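Batch manifest line 197
LIGAND: zinc ion
JOB: complex structure
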Amino acid sequence: MPEELIRRNRDWAARIESDNPDFFPRLAALQKPDYFWIGCADARVPANVVAGLEPGEVFVHRNVANVVHASDLNLLSALQFAIEGLGIRKVIVCGHYGCGGVRAACSDHHGHGLVDHWIAPIRALRHSHKGELSSLTPAERENLLVELNVRAGVDRIAETPILQDAWAAGLPVAVHGMVYSLADGILSQLEGATRVA
Ligand SMILES: [Zn+2]
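JOB STATUS: finished
ARTIFACT:
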Protein backbone atom coordinates (compact mmCIF):
# COMPACT_ATOMS: atom_id res chain seq x y z
CA MET A 1 0.00 0.00 0.00
CA PRO A 2 1.46 3.43 -0.89
CA GLU A 3 -0.01 4.84 2.37
CA GLU A 4 2.16 2.40 4.30
CA LEU A 5 5.27 3.56 2.39
CA ILE A 6 4.41 7.21 3.03
CA ARG A 7 3.96 6.57 6.74
CA ARG A 8 7.31 4.71 6.90
CA ASN A 9 8.97 7.53 4.91
CA ARG A 10 7.74 10.19 7.33
CA ASP A 11 9.03 8.17 10.30
CA TRP A 12 12.41 7.67 8.60
CA ALA A 13 12.81 11.34 7.58
CA ALA A 14 11.87 12.52 11.08
CA ARG A 15 14.35 10.10 12.67
CA ILE A 16 17.22 11.22 10.38
CA GLU A 17 16.35 14.89 10.90
CA SER A 18 16.42 14.51 14.67
CA ASP A 19 19.68 12.49 14.70
CA ASN A 20 21.46 14.69 12.16
CA PRO A 21 19.79 18.02 11.27
CA ASP A 22 22.49 18.73 8.63
CA PHE A 23 21.82 15.48 6.73
CA PHE A 24 19.21 16.53 4.14
CA PRO A 25 20.59 20.03 3.38
CA ARG A 26 24.06 18.54 2.87
CA LEU A 27 22.87 15.77 0.50
CA ALA A 28 20.53 18.13 -1.36
CA ALA A 29 23.48 20.39 -2.13
CA LEU A 30 25.88 17.75 -3.45
CA GLN A 31 26.07 14.17 -4.74
CA LYS A 32 29.64 12.93 -4.22
CA PRO A 33 29.63 9.13 -3.86
CA ASP A 34 32.88 7.15 -3.78
CA TYR A 35 31.48 4.00 -5.34
CA PHE A 36 29.53 2.87 -8.39
CA TRP A 37 27.79 -0.39 -7.55
CA ILE A 38 26.51 -2.82 -10.20
CA GLY A 39 24.49 -5.44 -8.38
CA CYS A 40 21.52 -7.79 -8.52
CA ALA A 41 17.95 -6.45 -8.33
CA ASP A 42 17.21 -9.08 -5.63
CA ALA A 43 15.36 -7.34 -2.77
CA ARG A 44 17.72 -8.98 -0.26
CA VAL A 45 20.82 -7.27 -1.66
CA PRO A 46 20.38 -3.48 -1.36
CA ALA A 47 23.77 -1.88 -2.03
CA ASN A 48 23.66 0.74 0.72
CA VAL A 49 22.53 -1.64 3.41
CA VAL A 50 24.85 -4.59 2.75
CA ALA A 51 27.87 -2.31 2.24
CA GLY A 52 27.01 -0.31 5.37
CA LEU A 53 26.78 2.97 3.42
CA GLU A 54 24.56 6.00 3.94
CA PRO A 55 22.42 7.66 1.24
CA GLY A 56 24.78 9.71 -0.94
CA GLU A 57 27.72 7.32 -0.59
CA VAL A 58 27.06 4.90 -3.46
CA PHE A 59 25.75 5.35 -7.02
CA VAL A 60 23.80 2.25 -7.99
CA HIS A 61 22.76 0.20 -11.01
CA ARG A 62 20.91 -3.06 -10.41
CA ASN A 63 19.44 -5.68 -12.73
CA VAL A 64 18.45 -9.34 -12.62
CA ALA A 65 21.59 -11.34 -11.72
CA ASN A 66 23.93 -8.32 -12.12
CA VAL A 67 24.57 -9.15 -15.76
CA VAL A 68 26.85 -6.76 -17.65
CA HIS A 69 25.63 -6.68 -21.25
CA ALA A 70 28.08 -4.77 -23.46
CA SER A 71 25.12 -3.10 -25.23
CA ASP A 72 23.08 -2.14 -22.13
CA LEU A 73 22.58 1.62 -22.59
CA ASN A 74 21.12 1.95 -19.12
CA LEU A 75 24.23 0.50 -17.47
CA LEU A 76 26.68 2.20 -19.86
CA SER A 77 25.18 5.64 -19.40
CA ALA A 78 25.20 5.21 -15.62
CA LEU A 79 28.85 4.02 -15.81
CA GLN A 80 29.88 6.99 -17.93
CA PHE A 81 28.11 9.44 -15.64
CA ALA A 82 29.67 7.76 -12.59
CA ILE A 83 33.20 8.18 -13.91
CA GLU A 84 33.00 11.39 -15.92
CA GLY A 85 30.20 13.23 -14.12
CA LEU A 86 30.57 12.18 -10.51
CA GLY A 87 34.30 11.47 -10.55
CA ILE A 88 33.90 7.99 -9.08
CA ARG A 89 37.09 5.91 -9.12
CA LYS A 90 35.83 2.65 -7.57
CA VAL A 91 33.47 0.48 -9.62
CA ILE A 92 32.06 -2.62 -7.93
CA VAL A 93 30.44 -5.55 -9.72
CA CYS A 94 28.72 -7.51 -6.95
CA GLY A 95 27.02 -10.88 -7.27
CA HIS A 96 25.44 -12.91 -4.50
CA TYR A 97 25.25 -16.58 -3.62
CA GLY A 98 21.68 -17.87 -3.83
CA CYS A 99 20.94 -15.69 -6.88
CA GLY A 100 17.67 -16.74 -8.56
CA GLY A 101 18.87 -15.55 -11.97
CA VAL A 102 22.01 -17.66 -11.75
CA ARG A 103 19.97 -20.62 -10.49
CA ALA A 104 17.71 -20.31 -13.54
CA ALA A 105 20.79 -20.25 -15.78
CA CYS A 106 21.93 -23.53 -14.19
CA SER A 107 19.07 -25.33 -15.90
CA ASP A 108 18.05 -25.65 -19.52
CA HIS A 109 14.42 -25.07 -18.63
CA HIS A 110 13.30 -21.89 -20.41
CA GLY A 111 10.17 -20.80 -18.61
CA HIS A 112 11.12 -17.33 -17.45
CA GLY A 113 10.08 -15.17 -20.41
CA LEU A 114 12.38 -12.23 -21.08
CA VAL A 115 14.58 -13.17 -18.12
CA ASP A 116 15.79 -16.14 -20.19
CA HIS A 117 17.11 -13.68 -22.78
CA TRP A 118 18.62 -11.49 -20.09
CA ILE A 119 20.55 -14.33 -18.42
CA ALA A 120 21.77 -15.88 -21.69
CA PRO A 121 25.38 -14.75 -20.98
CA ILE A 122 25.31 -16.76 -17.72
CA ARG A 123 24.07 -19.85 -19.59
CA ALA A 124 26.92 -19.28 -22.06
CA LEU A 125 29.39 -19.20 -19.15
CA ARG A 126 27.93 -22.46 -17.90
CA HIS A 127 28.60 -24.07 -21.28
CA SER A 128 32.10 -22.64 -21.67
CA HIS A 129 33.09 -23.88 -18.15
CA LYS A 130 31.36 -27.26 -18.52
CA GLY A 131 34.41 -29.32 -17.52
CA GLU A 132 35.12 -27.32 -14.38
CA LEU A 133 31.46 -27.30 -13.31
CA SER A 134 30.67 -30.96 -14.02
CA SER A 135 32.65 -32.33 -11.04
CA LEU A 136 30.79 -30.13 -8.52
CA THR A 137 27.60 -30.60 -6.51
CA PRO A 138 24.59 -28.55 -7.73
CA ALA A 139 25.10 -26.01 -4.90
CA GLU A 140 28.84 -25.65 -5.62
CA ARG A 141 28.09 -25.32 -9.33
CA GLU A 142 25.66 -22.49 -8.66
CA ASN A 143 28.14 -20.69 -6.39
CA LEU A 144 30.95 -20.97 -8.93
CA LEU A 145 28.64 -19.67 -11.66
CA VAL A 146 27.80 -16.67 -9.43
CA GLU A 147 31.55 -15.93 -9.24
CA LEU A 148 32.16 -16.54 -12.96
CA ASN A 149 29.34 -14.13 -13.79
CA VAL A 150 30.96 -11.43 -11.60
CA ARG A 151 34.39 -12.03 -13.20
CA ALA A 152 32.83 -11.79 -16.68
CA GLY A 153 31.07 -8.57 -15.64
CA VAL A 154 34.34 -7.04 -14.40
CA ASP A 155 36.09 -7.95 -17.66
CA ARG A 156 33.24 -6.58 -19.76
CA ILE A 157 33.25 -3.27 -17.81
CA ALA A 158 37.03 -3.07 -18.26
CA GLU A 159 36.65 -3.53 -22.01
CA THR A 160 34.14 -0.69 -22.47
CA PRO A 161 35.40 2.43 -24.26
CA ILE A 162 34.41 4.30 -21.08
CA LEU A 163 37.02 2.49 -18.97
CA GLN A 164 39.57 2.30 -21.77
CA ASP A 165 39.31 6.09 -22.26
CA ALA A 166 39.47 6.74 -18.51
CA TRP A 167 42.64 4.65 -18.22
CA ALA A 168 44.17 6.24 -21.33
CA ALA A 169 43.57 9.63 -19.67
CA GLY A 170 45.44 8.42 -16.58
CA LEU A 171 42.41 8.24 -14.27
CA PRO A 172 43.00 5.80 -11.39
CA VAL A 173 39.72 3.90 -11.84
CA ALA A 174 39.55 0.37 -10.42
CA VAL A 175 36.91 -2.25 -11.13
CA HIS A 176 36.43 -4.79 -8.33
CA GLY A 177 34.51 -8.07 -8.39
CA MET A 178 32.73 -8.87 -5.14
CA VAL A 179 30.28 -11.43 -3.87
CA TYR A 180 27.72 -11.25 -1.07
CA SER A 181 26.46 -14.15 0.99
CA LEU A 182 22.77 -14.13 1.90
CA ALA A 183 23.51 -16.79 4.53
CA ASP A 184 25.71 -14.63 6.76
CA GLY A 185 25.60 -11.09 5.33
CA ILE A 186 29.30 -11.12 4.47
CA LEU A 187 30.63 -9.22 1.45
CA SER A 188 33.94 -10.52 0.01
CA GLN A 189 36.32 -9.46 -2.70
CA LEU A 190 36.84 -12.09 -5.42
CA GLU A 191 40.49 -12.95 -5.73
CA GLY A 192 42.03 -11.88 -9.03
CA ALA A 193 38.87 -10.02 -10.08
CA THR A 194 40.21 -6.48 -9.91
CA ARG A 195 41.04 -4.51 -13.05
CA VAL A 196 43.12 -1.35 -12.99
CA ALA A 197 44.83 0.63 -15.71
ZN1 LIG B 1 20.34 -12.23 -7.68
